[in-house]
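hey m, so remember when u said the C-alpha cells were messed up on ur end? i reran from scratch. heres the input so u can diff it against urs
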Amino acid sequence: MAVVLDAFASYIQNMLTEMAKEEVDMLLGVSGEIDNLGTKLGDLKNFLADADRRNVTDQSVQPWVRELKDTMYDATDILDLCQLKAMERGSSSLAMGCLNPLLFCMRNPVFAHDIGSRIKKLNKRLDAIKERSATFSFINLGSYEDRSGKETTSRLANRETSAQLDRSSVVGEQIELDTRKLVEMLTEDPETTATHDKDNKSMVLAIVGIGGIGKTTLAQKIFNDDTINRVFTKKIWLSVNKDFSVAEILKRAIIESGGDHHAAGNAKATLQRILQNALDGHKTILVMDDVWNDQAWSDVLKTPFGNAAGHGSRVLVTTRHDLVARAMKAREPYHHVDKLDPKDAWSLLKKQVIRNEDEEPLIDMLEDIGMRIIEKCDCLPLAIKVMGGLLCKKMARRGDWEKVLNNAIWSVSQMPEELNYAIYLSYEDLHPSLKQCFLHYSLIPNKSTVFFVDDIVSMWISEGFVEGNSDELEELATEYYNELILRNLIEPDLLYVDRWVCNMHDVVRSFAQYMARDEALVAHKGKPDIGKLNSKKFIRLSLETEGSEAEELEWSSLQSQKSLRTLLVAGHIGIKAGDSLGTFPSLRTLHIDSTNFDVMAGSLCQLKHLRYFSITDPNTSRLPVNIGKMKFLQYISLDGCENLVKLPRGIEKLQQLRYLSLMGTNINFIPRGFYVLTNLRKIFGFPAHMDGDWCSLQVLEPLSRLMGLSIYGLENVLSSSFAAKARLGEKVHLSYLFLNCTSRLEDDGQLVREDEVFSEAEQQQIVEVFDELCPPPCLDVLEIEGFFGRWFPRWMRSIAAAPLENLRILTMDDLPCCTELPNGLCHLPCLELLQICRAPAIERVGLEFLQPQHDHHHTSQLAAVFPRLHNLTLTEMVEWEEWEWEENVQAMPLLEEFLLESCKLRCIPVGLASHARSLKKLYVHDVQHLNSLENLAAVVELEVYDNPDLMRIANFPKLWKLDISGCQKLKVLEGLPALQKLELTDYDMETLPIYLKDFKPTNLQIDCTLSLLTSIAAGKFSHEWDKFSHIQQVKAYANDGDIERKWYVLYTREPFNLETNVADRYSKSRNCFI
C-alpha cells in the first residue's frame, strides 16, 4: 500500500518527539539538525493533504510525491538507527557499569559521523523538495476534522437519485425476497411490532452496504411496491448525498409531499413549518437515499416528520455506514445488501448487453467469458452495469470480449468514473491514518491464508499507522478495524464469531491496490504482475502462490527489491541454501507461509528494523539464538510451526515485545526469565507445565498489561496454588481468556469411560485449579475447552463469586464429565453469545440453568434472565433428552439466532416459544427424538436437517425461508402464510412430499435423485406435476457422481417455461404453453 503523506509526516514527528533530541544532537555532532528535521516536516505538512489528493490524477505531481516519500522513508530508517544505538548503549552501559552515554558514543565515532552526515543530507533534500513544491501551488486544506466539516463543490459528491426504478437493474429472486421482507416490516401494525420507538411515526429502517452494491435499486423497488402505494397516503423520496443543503432538502420534501414551497425563502424554521402542514395526519413513507451522516434527519427532518406525520409512518434510509444507521436510531438488525448470486449477475450483464432478442443466443455463447468478467466485478451490481455499458459497444464475439477481460480497463484509472468515484468517495471520507489501514488491508493475501483481527491490527501498529499512546495502540487499531466494518469497506466473515475475520470486496480491493500502485505490488504466481518484480522498486510486496512446489516462486527472484518494508508471502516459495533475509534491511513486517524457513533462520537478526514477524511453516524447527538483538521486534507469531519445540533464551531480551503466539507449535516449556517481558499485551498458546516445584503460570504474575491470553495443558498444573500465582483476576486490561485441558473425548464426541481416564482426585484438582483462574470483571470473551471436572469452577456457578458484568461471549467445548450446565451465567447483563459444544454427560437441563438461587442482590433486579443474549448454540450434547423451561420463566428476550444440534431432545420447551420473541433464525440439526416444531411466532428462517422423527412444522406466521434436508417422516406443513422460499434436499425420497400441494411458496428448490428429477422433468405428464405446478419458480437438481447439480429442471409458472437437460425423452429444452 501507499503511505498517506499527512499521516506519514505525523508518524515521523512522533518519532522525533519521543527522542531525546538534545542528547542525540550532542552525541552525533549535528547541533540543531534534529530540530530542523522536525521543523521542515511541519512546514511541509501544511499542504500534504492537497498533494496526496492531486497525486491520484496529476502526473506532474507524482514524481515530487515519490521523492518526498523516499526521503521520509530514509528519515524513519535513520531515526530507527539512532534509537537502536541508544537501546544498545543502555544495555551495554548497564552491563559494563558505565552509565555515561557520552562514553559509549566516543567508542563509536564512525557511527556518530555517519548518522550525523545522513541527517544533514536529509535536511538538504527536504529543503530542495520544499522549494520545488511552490511549482504546484499546493493549498492548505486544514486538518481532517476541518476538511470533513466543510462542504465541497465536487460533482462527485452529489450523485442525484430518483424514485424511478430502472427495471433492467432488477434481477434474481433475492431482491424480490428482500423487497417483500422490508415491505412487510414497513407496513406491519405498529402495535404488534416487538421493537419500536415509543413514537411509531418516526421508526427508521436502514439498508446498508458498500457503494455500488444495489442499495438504491432495492429502495426504489420498495418505494414503487403496490403494497406501499396502498398503505401510505404520502410518499417522499429524497436524494440526500454528502453535501446536502438544508433549505434544498426541505424544499424537495415539501414538493414531494404536495406542499406549497413558493415564496417560502430559505429559512429553516419556515420550511419546517410548511412541511409539517403538508404532512399533517398523513401516513407517510420517507426514503432518504445515500445518507452520509445523520444530520439531514436529526437536525432537519425529524422534528416536522415526528410532529405531523400520521400513525404508522416510516423512514427508510440507505447508507454506506452502519454508524449513520445507529445515529438515526434505526431498527436493528439493519438490512445489509449482499452481492449478487453469479447466475443473477450473469442475467444483469445480459440485460445491459443485449440490444434485441436476436442477440441473446450469441451472448449466451459468451457466458464463460462473461462469468470471468463477473468474477472480476466481484458480483457487485454497479461494476457489472459499468462493464455491460462497455460490452454493449462491442461486437458479440469472443475476441472482443476477451480484450475487455484482459484489458487495462481493470486498472482504476481507466474504469468509468461512476464506478471509481463510488468507492473513491468512501475512501476520501476516511481519516488519514485510517486511509493507510484501508490501503494496507488490500495487501492481505485472501485465497490460501486466514488473517485474524489480531494479525491485521498488529501489522498496522508495526507499520506505524496507528497514532496514540503506546498503552492504547491495540485498542485504537481495533477501533480502526471496526470503523472500516461500519463503513462497509470490509465485511465480517460469517464463519467466524465477533468479526474476528473480515473480507474485502474484490472491486474495493482493486481500487485500493490501484491507489497504492506506486509503492505496493500484490502478485500471484503465473499472473502478469509478477513480472514487475524485475522492473520496478516497491516498498511493500504481497505474494500468493498456489499449486505444487514444482510451480513455486523462487526466493532469489525477490532479491532486487532491497527497499521493501513489508513482505507478505502466502503459499510455497522456493528457498535454497544461501538464500538470506539480509537483502531486505528495511523490513518492518514479514509474514512467510508454508516454506522452508530454517535455511534463512540465521539471517533473521539482520533485520534491525523488524517489528512484525510471522511464520507458519510446519517444518520450521528453530529460531535464531541471538533473537534478543532484534530490539524493535514487537509481534511474533509462530502459528502452525509443528516442529518448533523450544523458544530461544534470547527472547527474554525483547523488551518491546507486545504479542506472542505459540499456537500449533510443540513448545511446552517457557523460560523462567519470561516474566521480564512486561510489555506483552497478548500471549496465545502459552503452555502450562511444571519444572520441579516451579510452574510456568508463575511468570504471568508481573505481566499486568495482558489483554489476551490462551493457556494450554492446564491438567499439568499439580496444585491450585500455582494457578493462584498467575493472578489473572488482577489483570485489569484482560479482555480475552482461553483455558484449555487436553481433550479426553473420543473422536465421535462420546464420553470416555471415567474409571479408565479420570480419577476422582484428578477431577477435584482440575476444579480447584480453575477456581484460582478467576478472570477479572473487565473480561469480554471467555473460552473453555477440555475441562474435565464434574462441576464448573465456583466463579461460573455464582455471579457473586466473580462479577463478570462485562462478559459478552462465552464458549465451552469438550466437557466430558460435566453433568449440568453452569447456573451462574443467566444473569450476566452483557452476555450476547453462548456456545456449548460436546458435553456428553449432560442428560437434562433443568430450571437451575434459568433460575439459580439469588446469591447476589443485583440479580433480582433483572426482569429476565439472559437479558442480552443474541446467539445461542447447543451442539453435540449427545445424551441430552430434557429441557425444562416453564412458560412463566422469562428468559432470552433478545435471542435472534439459535442452533440446536446432535442431541436426543424430545420437544422444544414452551418457554422458548413464549419468551424468545426476537428469534429470527432457528437451526435444528440431528435432533433424534424431536417430532414437531410449532408456535415460534418471530422466526423468519428455519433449517431442519437430519431429524429422523420430525413429522410436523406448524404455526410460524412470519417464516419466509424454510430449508428441509433428510427429514423423511415430515408430513405436515401448516400455518406458514409468509413462506416465500422452500429448499428441499433428500436423496432417498422417491416422490415429492404431499404437503407441497397445500401451500404456495414463491420459490422452491429441490435436490434429489436423478430418478425423481426425471419424473419432475416430464412436466404435466408427471405424477409430480400437481405438487409443484402452482409454484411460481421451481429449480430442481440431481448429482452425477462427484459432479454436483449436473442435471437440472427449471420451471416458471408465469410466463410458463420448463427447461431441463435430463437425458430422457423430456431432455430437450422447450418453451410451450399448457
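this time it looks ok to me. The longest strand covers residues 1043-1052. if urs says something different then somethings off w ur setup not the seq
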